[in-house]
Design a protein that fits this description.
Length: about 350
């Protein structure tokens, strides 16, 4: 237990910092004056440790000290945590999150897909109607086993939906460490996966901030139009505020809706390559089949494995894994990549 002193009104607050002691910095809100400030557990002017009386063990009791066993010896994994995000809507975030997750799962990786959008479209694209999901996990209403469902072999789903609006309000009311709410909820769950893919909603809200504090890598789909370029620039500006508190990298920029018959998308793609270099992935070509799959509840690999979109999302899976020779578990077909002249 720690006493946190507001630098504005000098009000003292008790906070249990044991769960988040490993974090470097926090954004805190004083309940008395509503002042928000950043603090570190090493700052003696803001934090005052509360000493607890040390109870001596009885003669026949075992000492309370324990030797921690490394996670690797317990068979626990350290998953790669990738959020698929951009403040602008209509760029293919959910389509990308679902098909990337499906492709990784088909390649033999254990994947958890988390939907943090109030529209709950990840479940819809996979043809699932989960009875519970992320809201119940965040609020503690249900245990993880009752909130996560199997969507495909190797692919588990933690669904979103309208109820997340209430969860956002609960997060916002926390005066201490609200940005770590999602991380705390997933702390004991994600160790069973190779990849955790998080689909986010358009805009910039408290839940999106939670996702960025949880994830280690960012994949940003960018539809090849001028407004999306503007949205990417604004997103990168906002990301700098997050990077003040934790390390997170914008590793992948995925151009979407590339129509090779039109010159403007190709020009924008080349501009992305010039500005962001190797961070730009193989683009996803325009494919009519992508607009059809939601009504069938299938991934692009299931619905149209021979099409351009399946080939391009297959290329994305290879980029993410770093394995150019990776074979997805779909029917084996020659996979080409789009050429932009």
């Amino acid at each position: 237990m720690t006493i946190i002193v507001c630098p504005k009104c000098a009000k003292k607050h008790r906070a249990d910092t044991s769960k988040v002691a490993a974090k470097k910095k926090f954004l805190v809100r004083c309940k008395a004056c509503e002042h928000k400030f950043v603090f570190s557990l090493d700052d003696s002017q803001i934090t005052q440790p509360v000493t607890q009386p040390v109870l001596k063990p009885a003669i026949h009791e075992q000492p309370a000290t324990q030797i921690e066993t490394p996670a690797s010896t317990l068979g626990m994994k350290t998953p790669r945590k990738i959020c698929v995000t951009l403040s602008k809507g209509g760029v293919g975030k959910t389509t990308t999150a679902v098909n990337l997750s499906a492709g990784l799962a088909m390649s033999g990786y254990k994947v958890l897909l988390i939907d943090t959008d109030t529209q709950g479209q990840s479940s819809f694209l996979l043809g699932k109607k989960p009875p519970a999901g992320l809201t119940e996990l965040l609020t503690g209403e249900l245990p993880p086993a009752e909130t996560i469902i199997e969507a495909r072999p190797n692919l588990d789903l933690l669904g979103g939906g309208r109820s997340l609006a209430g969860a956002k309000r609960i997060i916002d009311k926390r005066s201490f460490g609200s940005e770590w709410t999602l991380s705390e909820a997933l702390e004991k769950i994600d160790k069973g996966y190779d990849y955790v893919i998080i689909d986010t909603s358009p805009g910039w809200d408290q839940l999106t901030v939670n996702v960025l504090f949880y994830a280690d890598e960012i994949l940003t789909p960018v539809s090849l139009e001028v407004l999306s370029l503007h949205g990417l620039a604004e997103f990168i500006k906002n990301l700098h505020a997050i990077k003040r508190y934790k390390e997170i990298d914008l590793k992948y920029i995925l151009p979407t809706f590339l129509d090779t018959r039109v010159e403007q998308p190709k020009d924008i793609y080349r501009k992305l390559q010039t500005i962001y270099g190797d961070n730009v992935c193989t683009p996803v070509r325009y494919d009519e089949e992508l607009s059809k799959i939601p009504s069938h509840g299938k991934t692009i690999f299931e619905f149209h494995p021979d099409g351009d979109a399946a080939a391009d999302y297959g290329a994305l899976v290879r980029t993410i894994t770093g394995n150019k020779n990776l074979l997805l578990g779909a029917p084996t077909n020659p996979i080409g990549t789009p050429e932009v002249s």
